[in-house]
From TrEMBL:
Annotated GO MF terms: protein tyrosine kinase activity
PANTHER family per record: FERRIC ENTEROBACTIN TRANSPORT PROTEIN FEPE (PTHR32309:SF13), TYROSINE-PROTEIN KINASE (PTHR32309)
Location, primary (coarse class): membrane
Name of the protein described by the UniProt record: Lipopolysaccharide biosynthesis protein
Source organism of this protein record: Paenibacillus herberti
InterPro entries per record: Bact_polysacc_biosynth/exp, LPS_length_determ_N
Subcellular location: Cell membrane
Parts of the chain that traverse the membrane: 180-201
Family affiliation: Belongs to the CpsC/CapA family.
Domain Polysaccharide chain length determinant N-terminal: 4-94
Entry keywords, A to Z: Cell membrane, Membrane, Transmembrane, Transmembrane helix
Region (Disordered): 233-253
Coiled coil: none
GO cellular component: plasma membrane
Length: 253
């Protein structure tokens, strides 16, 4: 019974302050949309792929040495570390000054990945400028392919695909719908929680149920609520009656 009364009390409080909840919800969603759309930068990515394999010469041509595939796969982890070292990044910065990047800036843009048990490596550059991301990833790929024979004394890296600049690249990182939804849920929980907390801390007695809950005693009588109109009505009638009586007396005199 007490639980039902509390639930009813909180529901009534939420209904009374529904306007506040709607305003806070609207402000939060609009702010999240504006922040994501206007203040969050667009990011673009560009990728280049390598294959790591060994070849042997047969009848004047080169074919893949299948017996060394296992060692090539194991080399990928080593290559993933080498490509991110100053031995590669410093040379890219020197050979491609048009990128206008430092070695550390270039390093922060680059990510290297590979699928398990494959000889393929993927080099990805991320930047707020799509064209610069394409140039950066291709520059790193070319320098890496050139420097590996000098570092490892083996020429087993081939560029499979180079990054291409697209006319209408799609940015990533701006998830407007997700951000707006998160803001709406957070605002709804915060506003409802605040209303419930204020109502919970409010010890003012507003109705007979509050007295019963506070004292544990049953209500013997209930004084109904009267509107101002109901309160003024008897007074007007009384005044009207007295005024009529006085007039009657005056006439009698």
């Amino acid at each position: 019974m007490v639980l039902d009364m509390d639930m009813k009390r909180y529901v009534i409080a939420l209904k009374k302050r529904l306007w506040m909840i709607i305003i806070l919800l609207s402000i939060s969603t609009v702010s999240a949309y504006y922040y994501t759309q206007q203040l969050t930068p667009n990011y673009y990515s560009a990728s280049s792929k390598f294959i790591v394999n060994n070849t042997v010469e047969v009848s004047g041509g080169e074919v893949i040495d299948f017996s060394s595939i296992g060692s090539s796969i194991r080399l990928i982890d080593t290559y993933k570390e080498i490509i991110l070292t100053p031995a590669i990044m410093d040379k890219v910065v020197v050979q491609y000054p048009d990128l206008d990047l430092t070695a550390n800036q270039l390093l922060s843009m680059i990510r290297v990945s590979s699928l398990n048990e494959t000889q393929v490596m993927t080099l990805t550059a991320t930047d707020t400028n799509h064209g610069r991301a394409v140039k950066a990833v291709n520059a790193v790929a070319k320098v890496f392919q050139t420097e590996i024979p000098k570092i490892m004394k083996i020429n087993n890296v081939t560029i499979l695909t180079s990054a291409q600049e697209r006319e209408n690249p799609r940015p990533f990182g701006q998830n407007i719908s997700s951000n707006v939804m998160i803001a709406a849920i957070a605002a709804l929980l915060l506003s409802c929680g605040t209303v419930i907390l204020v109502e919970y801390l409010d010890s003012t007695i507003k109705q007979e149920e509050d007295i019963v809950q506070a004292t544990g005693a049953d209500a013997l009588a209930i004084i109904p609520k009267l509107s101002k109109r109901q309160l003024n009505l008897p007074h007007k009638k009384k005044g009207h009656s007295a005024h009529s009586t006085m007039k009657a007396g005056e006439q009698a005199l």
